[in-house]
Write a structure and sequence with these properties.
Blueprint lengths: L3 H13 L2 H8 L3 H15 L4 E4 L2 E4 L1 H25 L7 E8 L6 H12 L3 E8 L1 H9 L5 E6 L6 E10 L1 E3 L10 E2 H5 L2 E4 L5 H12 L5 E5 L3 H9 L4 E4 L16 E4 L3 E9 L6 H21 L4 E3 L4
Parallel strand pairs: 3-4, 3-5, 8-12, 9-10, 9-11
Antiparallel strand pairs: 1-2, 5-13, 6-13, 6-14, 7-11, 7-12
Helix pairs in contact: 1-2, 1-3, 1-4, 5-10
């Protein structure tokens, strides 16, 4: 049976890149460290490390074990806090991820609000795309994530907040400033994210249902690159974004709602396998209210709030 010590030693060796450096870091004799790793490889029946004169690196099996063992060790380290967190003020480190497609200024604004209302909580913010945020939550690198979803993965606990409609974003000179039919959208030159992508999946499903084929002239996976292509006149983009107030410049036209509507769901997610700490629950509740107030203040178009169950 694998032991905590073996997992700790293995993770330390991978992160140090050599047995000698790991032994020095965790204060264990190198022969004992090597023996524990050898026992772990024997128990699993696979080679975990590639050894060379320059050090060690994980095999394919070792990469999998490193990822899973790191997650297990992090959760074990958090366990005392989870047990003690039922009473008293929220306290501890909370790691929150947020989709980069949503309001660009929201992460900084929420960090300031968290300092005021949860002074004993240390917030670690990560901004990325929704699939990356979801993966990091599932691997316990993040405690919470605000993501856009097309389908609900059963591995997460979630609080759906609102449905966000998709909009066409064009250069100001090309924009009509009104709703656009799906058939007309398909005939335009489009700058879309490559598959797999949540927005692309929802859009492709809508096109397929209408027996339409979009005219994709460029694929871009980063919102900043997509907007740059729109500004250069390459084509129009489709984003879950009806408010461009957080994007500088006046060369973009007013977002055009797609008809019939195509939606993504915005949810706060966490691991479905481990409970949240008291601090993480407090951050989740504060963050949920923050997002609702922010979008109501900006009167963000295309937002359809989901009533709590």
């Amino acid at each position: 049976m694998m032991q905590y010590r073996q997992l700790h030693y293995f993770v330390s060796v991978v992160e140090a890149g050599s047995f000698s450096r790991a032994a020095s870091t965790i204060h264990v004799a190198q022969p004992a460290l090597s023996q524990q790793i050898a026992q772990l490889e024997e128990q699993l029946g696979v080679s975990l490390l590639l050894r060379s004169a320059r050090g060690v690196r994980p095999t394919a099996a070792g990469e999998i074990l490193y990822r899973e063992a790191s997650s297990i060790l992090r959760r074990l380290q958090q366990l005392p806090g989870i047990v003690r967190s039922g009473t008293g003020p929220a306290k501890g480190i909370v790691r929150l991820g947020m989709s980069s497609t949503l309001l660009a200024t929201a992460p900084m604004a929420f960090m300031e609000q968290c300092k005021v209302f949860l002074p004993d909580v240390v917030l670690r913010m990560a901004v990325s795309d929704s699939p990356t945020i979801g993966r990091r939550v599932s691997e316990h690198e993040l405690d919470l994530g605000l993501v856009l979803e097309d389908e609900f993965a059963p591995t997460f606990a979630r609080t759906p907040l609102f449905k966000q409609r998709l909009f066409l974003i064009r250069h100001r000179t090309a924009s009509k400033g009104k709703a656009i039919q799906l058939g007309d959208l398909a005939s335009l030159p489009l700058v879309l994210p490559s598959s797999p992508n949540i927005t692309r999946t929802a859009l492709d499903r809508a096109f397929a249902a209408a027996k339409l084929s979009p005219t994709v002239v460029m694929e871009a996976d980063v919102v900043a690159n997509t907007i740059a292509a729109v500004r250069a006149g390459v084509g129009g983009a489709v984003l879950p974004k009806g408010d461009l107030s957080d994007i500088s410049g006046d060369d973009l036209g007013r977002p055009e709602a797609i008809e019939p509507p195509v939606y993504l769901t915005c949810s706060v997610i966490s691991s479905g396998n481990f409970p949240l700490t008291h601090a993480a629950e407090a951050v989740r509740d504060l963050f949920t209210g923050f997002i609702e107030i922010t979008l109501q203040q900006t009167q963000a178009p295309g937002v359809e709030w989901i009533a709590p169950a």
